[in-house]
Write a structure and sequence with these properties.
Strand order of the largest sheet: 1-2
Largest sheet: 2 strands, antiparallel
Radius of gyration: 12 Å
Number of strands: 2
Helix content: 25-40%
Strand content: 15-25%
Shape: globular
Distance between the termini: 19 Å
Number of helices: 2
Length: 73
Amino acid sequence: MSPTDLPAVVALQDCCYSDALYEIPHLLQHRLDCAATSCWLAENSDGVLLAYLLSYPSMSGYVAPLVSAFLPA
């Protein structure tokens, strides 16, 4: 995933998630900045975004809550 993919990620989020699960674009950018090598996209053969995953290196005993920033590893 790259920063240029974020508009498509936000659009997919808008289509699929309820307001309770919505994460603002600035937060998604922060997560990508913190852990770019562990953020991925799934696209069809036409390049249409089907899914995305923003993950981060684990810290023992801590899971980042929804709608919160990843902590630097």
